[in-house]
Design a protein that fits this description.
By secondary structure, the chain is an alpha+beta fold. The chain has one domain: Ubiquitin-like (UB roll), CATH 3.10.20.30. The chain is 13% helix and 23% strand.
Length: 86
């Protein structure tokens, strides 16, 4: 499955904006990403195993809030970092 990587995390993917990973849930997909690109999942998931507050995951057009969400029928996962400030 295609995974779009935000610019700040592309240092883990040798600059690649689009990579592929496999899994039946978001958690498994992130584990596969981390196998291929060590350290990337720590930037997405916190020490308690939850999505970091500044990370947003889209499954197709839908925002994902749970790591155990199934990936059935999903063609693309988009990882985004929320921007803040004023």
């Amino acid at each position: 499955m295609k995974v779009r990587i935000p610019t700040p995390l592309r240092s883990y993917t040798a600059g690649e904006a689009n990579v592929t990973a496999e899994g039946t849930t978001v958690r498994e997909l992130l584990a596969d990403l981390d196998r291929q690109f060590p350290g990337i999942t720590f930037r997405v998931v916190d020490e308690q195993g939850r999505l970091r507050q500044h990370m947003v995951v889209f499954l197709g057009q839908d925002r994902c809030r749970q790591l155990d969400t199934p990936l059935d029928g999903i063609d693309e996962v988009v990882l985004m970092q929320a921007l803040s400030g004023g």
